[in-house]
Amino acid sequence: MTTRRLSRRHFLQGSALVAGGAFMVACAPVAGDPGAGAADEGESMSEEPIELVAQYWGTRPEFIEDREILAQRMTEKFPNVTASQNSVPGGQYGEKVLTAIAAGTPPDTMQLNHRWEPFFRGQEALLNVIPFADADDEFTFDVFYPRIIELGTTEGQLVTVPRGWNPFVIYYNRALFREAGLDDLPTSWENDTWNWDSFLETAQALTVDSDGDGRADVYGMFFPYWYPFLRLGGGDVLSDDQQSSGLGSPEALAALQWLADLRLTHGVSPTPAEIEGLGSAQDLFTAGRVAMFTAGAWGIGALTRVEGLDWDVGPLPRAAGQPPVGYTQYYGHGIPKGTQSADWSWEYLKIISDEESNITVAQTIGDVPAMRHIAESEHFAGLPKPPTRQVFIDSAPHMQVWPTIAPITEIMSRAITPELNLAFLGEKSVEDAVAAAGPQVDEILAALWGN
Amino acid sequence: MRSRQAQVGQAADELAAGKRPRMSGIARKEAIAGYFAISPWLLGFLIFQLAPILAAFYISSTEWRILSAPEFIGVRNFDKLLFKDDLFWQSIKVTVIYVIFRVPVSAVLSLALALLMNQQLAGRRLFRTIYYLPAVIPLVAVSMMWIWIFNPEYGVLNSFIRLFGIEGPQWIHSSRWALPALIIMSLWQVGTGIVIFLAGLQGIPAHLYEAATIDGANTWQRFLKVTLPMLSPVVLFALVMNVIGSFQIFTQAYIMTAGGPGNATLFLVLYIYRNAFEWFHMGYASALAWVLFVVVLVISLIMLRSSEHWVHYEGRIGGA
Amino acid sequence: MKLRRRETVSLQLVTALGAAALLFPFLWMISASLQTLQEVEAFPPIWIPEVPQWTNYIEAVVNYNIGRALLNSAVVTTVSVVGQLIVCSLGAYAFSRLRFPGRDAIFLLFLATMMIPHYVTIIPLYTMVWSAGLIDTYTALIFPGLFSPFGTFLLRQFFNQIPISLDEATLIDGGNHWHIYLYVIMPLSRAGLGALGIFSFLGIWNTLFWPVLVINSKELFTLPLALAMAQGQFVTLIHVQMAGSVIACVPVIVVFLMLQKQFISSIALSGMKQ
Predict the structure, then answer these.
(1) Residue C67's CB: how many other CB atoms inside 10 A?
(2) Quick one: B26 and B101 in the same domain?
(3) pLDDT tier at A194 (50, 70, 90 boundaries)?
(4) Fewer CB atoms inside 10 A, N or C side of chain B?
(5) How far apart, in whole angstroms, are the C-alpha atoms of residue B255 and residue B145?
(6) pLDDT tens, C153-202?
(7) What angle do CA B119, B120, B124 make, to 5 degrees?
(8) Residues of chain A with pLDDT > 70: what percent?
(9) Residue range(s) defining the domain that contains residue B36
(10) Number of cross-chain residue pairs from B and C with Cβ atoms under 8 Å apart
(11) What keywords are annotated for this sequence in UniProt (chain C) (predicted)?
C-alpha cells in the first residue's frame, strides 16, 4: 500500500513540474476508495515500522503537550509505530487537511468538530467508524454520552469518535453580582425563574456607568455567539425539512430581535467597536468590564488561572414557552479516507479517545469529557472550581448542536452572518436582515439538494 | 523611434533571409547561448505562468471542490455570476466605487504634492522621505494601525473630531462608512504617485518654461500649457497602474473588515478568496478571477484609447 | 522658476502640514505601542505615556513569534530577490541581445500574458504546490515568484538601451555571449537591477495573500502572516498590536532610509519606462 502511495505522489510531482497546471487539474486525484478500511484487516496490521500522524488544530502549549503525550502512548503500545502530531492554526485547518487528502497524503487521524465534521463528511472524505467499533472488543460507544453519538450519526454513519464537549453556560462575576445586590444564578436547567426576562433584568442591574460619560464602565452581558440564543428561543437557521431558511419563523425572529435589543435598546452589551479595542469576552470578563458572558466549557481553563476572580456558572436562560436548551459543541477525531492503513488509524484514534485521554480533557484542557463516567467522576465534576460544575453536566439531557448539513459554514458566513451583523449594529431591522439572508440560504440549499 | 539594436537585428534578419535558412556558425552559437540564457526563465514562465493560465481557463469551466475530480459544466459558472449571484454584483459595485474615488483623488493629490516638492523648498529631501514612507511599510501593519485610528470609541480620529463637539461616524463598524474609510486610508499612501510625478516633472526641459514666460504666460498658464501636456504620458501611466492595482485590493479588507459590515467592503479579490479558500468553490472562484481580468483589461484599454485625445507626446508639443 | 517670498513661505507651510498629517498615524502608533490599555482608551487621547510600557514589545514578540517571522521574511525575501534578478536578467538578456528561432514568438506570448492578474493563476499555482507536496515549505514561498514577467520585461527595456557597439567590441576582443552578459550588460544595468530588486523586495516583504495559502505552521510564518494570524486568532489588545506593527515596520523603514535614493529611482524608473 505504501509503495502505491509513493508512486502516486511521484507521478503528481512529475506532472506538476513538467506538464504544468493544466494537465494537473485534469488528473486531480480523487479521495481514496471507500471500500478500504475495516475489510483489509490482518494484512495491514503488520509489525512493519509505520509512521502515523494525528492532525489537530490550535497551537496553544497545553494542546501541544497533550497531543505529544497521546503520540508517546501510541508508540509505547505499539513499538513498531512512530506516532506524531501535526497542529495547525485553527483558521487554516480545513484548507490544510483538504489539500493533504487531495494530494494523496492524508493524516492518519484528524480532529473534527461542529464546523469541520459537516464539511468533510459533505466532501465524502471520512470513514464510517461504526464497523471498526463493531469489530473491536476493546471498544464500545456505550461509555460516551448517548446523545453525542445520536446527534453525530447520520444515515447510519458516524465519522467522529467524540473526545470532549463544550456545553454553553453563563459565566458570571460573583463580586459584581454582590455589588448589584443580586443573588447567585440558579443551577438547574429546568427552573422557570431564570428566563429571558430575569436575564435582562439582571443584565440591566449589572450595567453601570459610574463616571457618567455615557459609556458603560461595566456591561451586564456580552454574547459573542448568537446561535445558542436562536435555539433557546425555539428558532433555527434552517427549516425543519432543511429545504429552506428557517430564520423567518416567528420564534427565530423574536429571538434575534431580543438579542439585537440587548445592545441597541437596553445597552447592556458592548458594541463591536468597544470589543475590538478591549479584547475577547474572556478578557473583558477577567478585567471586570463585563459581568456575564456566554461560552462553552473552555472558559473554565482560562478563568481558573486568573487569581482573585470570584466567578461561577449558571444555565442558559429559558425563553418564554420554550424547553431548556443545552447548546453544545462536541469534538473528537475521525479517519480520513485514503490513509496508509485505516486499521492503524483506528488504533491511534482509540488512544486519542480513551479514558486516560478523557481525563486530560477534564483536568488539563478544561472541557467536559465525552465519556460520561469520567465527566461525572472526581476528574471533572469533583474539581473545586467553579463550585457548580454540575451545571455543565446537567445540560446533557437538553443537548442541542450546530446544524450538521455539509454547507453550513457557507450558509452562515456567506448568507447569514453579514446580514445579521447589520441587524445587530442597528443598521437594518431584524426582519429586513432575515428577508435578505433567506434567498441566499435557499440558493445554497437548492444547490445541495440538487434542485 | 527604433533602437539601434532593433535596426541591427533587422538588418541581420534581412541578410539571413537572402541566404539559405541555414544558420552560420556564429548564429548557431548565438542561438545556443540564447536558449541557454532564456531556459530558466522560460521554464518558469511555462510552468508558473502559462500553464496556470491555461489551467485557470479550464478550471473556470468546471465545478471543482478539490476532493472530487473537476466536473466540466461549460459556461455555467459565468452564467451564475452574471445572472444569479447578487454578491458578485455587490463585490463589483464595492470595487468599482473604491477605484472611482481612489484613483482620481490620489492622482490629483499626488500631482499637487509633486508640484510642491518640485519647488525650491527648504528640507525638500526630508519631506520627500516623509511623503513616501507610508507607501513602503507592510500593508498588514498599515491595516492594523488604521483599525485603531478608525475605532469609533477609542480611535484617535474620532477623538479629534470630538474636539469640535461632533461625534464622528462609526467608520469600519458601519456599512455606510467602511468603504469611505478604506478610501481615506488608501490616500495616506500617495507616495508612489508623488515619486512618479516628480520624476516626470524633473524631465520637463526648463527651456519650455522660459519660452512660455517670454510669451507672457503666468504660473497657472504655464501649468496648463507646459506642465500638464508634458506630464500627460506619466499621468496616463500612473492612472493605468493605479487602476490595475486598486482593482486588486485585498489585504486591507481581509485584515480590517473581513468584507463587512454587511458586505460593504466585499471587494472582488476578497470574494474570490472566500469562494476558493473558505467555501472551496474552485471553479467559481476561477471564473471570478477571469472577470477581474476582463474588467481590468477593458478599463485599461478604454483609458489607453482615450489617451489619444489628451496625452501629448514630445514631438507634438511645439506644433500644438 | 522663481517664486516670490510670500509664496515660498506659504508653500513651505502647506508642505510641512501635509507631512505632519502623514506622520500623524505613525506617531500615534508609536505612542500607543508604549501606553497602558487605560491610556490608549483615554479621552482626550494621551500622546506621551506616563511610563513607557516597553513590556508591550516583549509581549508582542512572544505573542507574534516575531523573531522567527523576521528571520523567515529575511530568508524568503533575500533568496527571492537574488534569484529573480538572476533569472530575469538572463531572460531579458536573451530577449534583448540574442537572436534565436522562436524568440519573437515567445516574447509575444509573454506580452500577451502580462496583463493577466496574479489572482487568475493563484488557484492553479496553489493546486500545483499541494500536489507536489510543497505546502508549508520555503520552496512554495520562493519558487513561483522567481520568474517574474514584469521583471524580465523591465530589464529587457533597460538592456535595449545599452549600445550594441559594446557587445560587438567584446566579441571582437574574443569574448563570448556570457562575457557580454557578465561584463557589459550587468555592470551597465545597475540602476535597472536595483530598481527591480527594490520593487521585488517591497512586494515580497509585504505580501500576505500567497503566504496565507501555502504556509500553515508558525515556524514558517512570514512577518505579515504572523501579524495577520495573531490579529485573527487570539484577540490581543490595542497597545500590544501596535507594538507588533511597529516591529514589522522597522526593517522596511531602515532599509528604505539606507537606500532611499534607489527606492525613489526604482519607483520612478519602473514608472517611466514604457
Answers:
(1) 12
(2) no
(3) very high
(4) N
(5) 11
(6) 888 888 888 888 888 888 888 888 888 888 888 888 888 888 888 888 88
(7) 90
(8) 89
(9) 4-59
(10) 293
(11) Cell membrane, Membrane, Transmembrane, Transmembrane helix, Transport
The answer to whether the CB atoms of C124 and A102 lie below 8 A apart is no
Q: Chain A within 8 Å of C139 (Cβ-Cβ)?
A: no
Question: Best residue in A15, A18, A24, A25 to probe B by mutation, most B CBs within 10 Å?
Answer: A25
> Which residue reads 443580586 in cell numbers?
A182
Based on the fold, state whether residues B181 and B274 are members of the same structural domain.
yes
Query: Which residues, including other chains, have CB under 8 Å from residue B165's CB and lie 6 or more apart?
Result: none
User: How many A×C Cβ pairs under 8 Å?
Assistant: 68
* B209 → chain C, closest CA residue: C1
Residue C241 lies in a domain: yes
- The pTM for the full model equals 0.89
β-partners of residue A238 are A245
Count Cβ atoms within 10 A of the Cβ of residue B204 and give its class: 0-12 exposed, 13-18 middle, 19 or more buried.
Answer: middle
The whole-angstrom distance between C162's CA and the closest CA on chain B is: 9
Least confident of A5-19, B50-64, B275-289, C57-71: A5-19
Q: Does C44 touch chain A (CB under 8 A)?
A: no
Give the pLDDT confidence score for residue C66 in this predicted structure: 85
CA distance C118 to chain A (A): 15
Q: What is the CATH number of the domain that holds C80?
A: 1.10.3720.10
CA of B196: how far to CAs of B234, C271, C274, in Å?
7, 6, 13
CB-based contact A440 B67, cutoff 8 Å: no
Q: How far apart are CA A414 and CA A245, in angstroms?
A: 13
CB atoms A24 and C217 under 8 Å: no
In a domain, B66, yes or no: no
DSSP A69: H
What interface predicted TM-score (ipTM) does this complex get?
Answer: 0.87
Contact by Cβ (8 Å): C122, C213: yes
User: Is position B180 within any domain?
Assistant: yes
Residue C226 distance to chain B (closest CA, Å): 10
Alpha-carbon distance of A259 to A251, in angstroms, equals 12
Asked if residue C6 has pLDDT above 50, the reply is yes
Write out chain B residues lying below 8 Å of C11, CB-based.
Answer: 116, 119, 121
Whether A220 shows a pLDDT value over 70: the answer reads yes
CB spacing of B200 vs C272 below 8 angstroms: yes
Q: Are residues B177 and B261 in the same domain?
A: yes
Q: Considering only alpha carbons, which residue of chain A is nearest residue B260? A: A418
Length of chain B equals: 320
B120 class by beta-carbon count within 10 Å (0-12 exposed, 13-18 middle, 19+ buried): exposed
How many Å apart are CA A277 and CA C242, to the nearest integer? 12
| Nearest Cβ partner for C245 among B145, B234, B237 | B145
Residues B111, B227, single domain; the answer is yes
* Average pLDDT of the segment spanning B93-106: 96
B117-156: per-residue pLDDT in tens? 888 888 888 888 898 888 888 899 999 899 888 988 888 8
- Given this model, what pLDDT does residue C71 score? 92
Write the DSSP assignment of chain C as a string of letters: ----HHHHHHHHHHHHHHHHHHHHHHHHHHHHTTS-HHHHH-SSPPSS-SS--THHHHHHHHHHTHHHHHHHHHHHHHHHHHHHHHHHHHHHHHHHH---TTHHHHHHHHHHHHTS-HHHHHHHHHHHHHHTT-TTSHHHHHGGGTT-HHHHHHHHHHHHTS-HHHHHHHHHTT--HHHIIIIIIHHHTHHHHHHHHHHHHHHHHH--HHHHHH--SGGG--HHHHHHHHHHHS---HHHHHHHHHHHHHHHHHHHHHTHHHHHHHHHHHHH--
Asked whether B62 and B75 are in contact (CB, 8 A), the reply is no
The answer to whether residue B69 is domain-embedded is no
Paired with A314 in beta bridges are: A170
Contact A215, A277 (CB under 8 A): no
